[in-house]
Specification:
binds magnesium ion; Rossmann fold; binds adenosine-5'-diphosphate; 15 helices
Length: 368
């Protein structure tokens, strides 16, 4: 199966609806790429506790963690292949960004503890995603990894930071900022500010007004930085070396969401779409022989009487499998690539199962 993107991409971004398997498949893809000899970093957003433990990562880690030799061995990864994992906490990264830009620790702390900052960074379009991606950009530039596999949050907002013109920037207009920042300008302006303060004190109370002022004063610096870098980042994501993979399950809702991402990435944002991963698919069932018309010789009475039910179930399963295969063919014809990953009963949270999933992911496609 054609998985050239492991060799010729530097970043692979997994997009799709919530719960389709983005986090799981990001890890599985990273494992497979490392098996092929690449030095890989997988950045997950919201792994289950067990998955995080399996990869040996924890929340709030400041930097990626390399998988131990034992884990690599268990996964069949040999040098030069290597795998590191990082659980990304967008708010933490955003806070780090504040520390980087506002050099004075006291000032930075003032902004970080500001109530408005806390609410605004969660609300402003793409702010957290943007700063998170900016942190990744550093790794890519540093050349510590050949490939970064990037998981995305469980929502359409995953790509907000790449949209132009950015709503974040429109919201954070500097001219609005300056109105709230006291202590500068002509007497008329000072007067205006005085009046604004009075009105705001009445509307929100003096505490909130002061919080707002501190926020606007300090956040202006962050805004300048983001404005400066956003264009560069957008350009970076449009480069040929950055590929987008759409993860979907065969359910209608997930497919609609994936279609949304397909149009968004390829047609609106002009990003490089590598294709689809159809997760939780039954298509592999087509490889399996069907039960015969009659039960095997020597079958017990119980098996004999249950046989028609087995057959019926097998036929139903085969019909679903054929629908999934047709779906996979359709996704391939639209984007040029599809990988089919089977549904593993009991979920995928330990290394053994991840390893299995990453292997089956690139097996030859099923015959129709
Ligand atoms: N192919 C699969 N077979 C069985 N369970 C799966 C499969 N892919 C994902 N899962 C399970 O589904 C749940 C959601 O997967 P996850 O990767 O967290 O989705 P997302 O990141 O898209 O929200 C997890 O419990 C995961 O173990
Ligand atoms: Mg996830």
């Amino acid at each position: 199966m054609n998985n050239d993107f492991f060799q010729n991409k530097r970043v692979l971004v997994c997009c799709g609806a919530g719960g389709v398997g983005k986090t799981t498949l990001s890890a599985a893809l990273a494992i497979q790429a490392a098996r092929l000899g690449r030095r890989v970093l997988v950045v997950t957003i919201d792994p289950s506790k067990r998955l995080a433990e399996s990869l040996g990562i924890s929340r709030n880690a400041e930097a990626p963690v390399a998988l131990s030799k034992e884990r690599l061995k268990e996964l069949g990864i040999e040098a030069p292949g290597a795998l590191s994992a990082w659980m990304l906490d967008p708010q933490l990264i955003c806070d780090n960004c504040v520390h980087r830009i506002i050099r004075d620790p006291a000032e930075a702390k003032k902004l970080l503890s500001n109530r408005i900052y806390r609410n605004v960074t969660a609300m402003v379009a793409g702010m957290q995603e943007y700063t998170a991606v900016e942190a990744l950009h550093e790794f890519i530039k540093e050349d510590a990894y050949d490939l970064v596999v990037l998981d995305t949050p469980p929502s359409r907002n995953a790509l907000r930071f790449l949209e132009a013109p950015s709503r974040a920037m429109a919201f954070l207009d500097k001219r609005i900022f300056s109105l709230f920042v006291p202590g500068e300008g002509s007497r008329v302006r000072q007067m205006a500010i005085f009046l604004i303060e009075k009105v705001m004190d009445m509307a929100f109370g003096a505490d909130t007004r002061r919080d707002l002022q501190v926020f606007f004063q300090l956040f202006g610096n962050i805004l300048g930085h983001l404005n400066h870098n956003q264009g560069e980042m957008r350009q970076f994501f449009q480069e040929d070396s950055v590929g987008f993979l759409l993860v979907t399950s065969p359910e209608r809702e997930a497919l609609n969401e994936a279609r949304y991402f397909e149009i968004k990435t390829r047609d609106e944002l002009h990003l490089h779409l590598c294709g689809y991963i159809l997760n939780r698919s039954l298509a592999w069932v087509l490889k399996r022989p069907m039960p015969g018309e009659t039960p095997p010789e020597g079958a017990s009475e119980a098996l004999k009487s249950a046989w028609p039910h087995f057959q019926k179930l097998a036929l139903q399963e085969q019909a679903t499998a054929m629908t999934h295969q047709k779906l996979a063919d359709e996704l391939k014809s639209r984007t040029g690539f599809v990988a089919i990953s089977p549904i593993l009963p009991g979920g995928v949270s330990d290394l053994e199962r991840l390893s299995l999933l990453s292997q089956t992911l690139f097996e030859e496609p099923q015959h129709a």
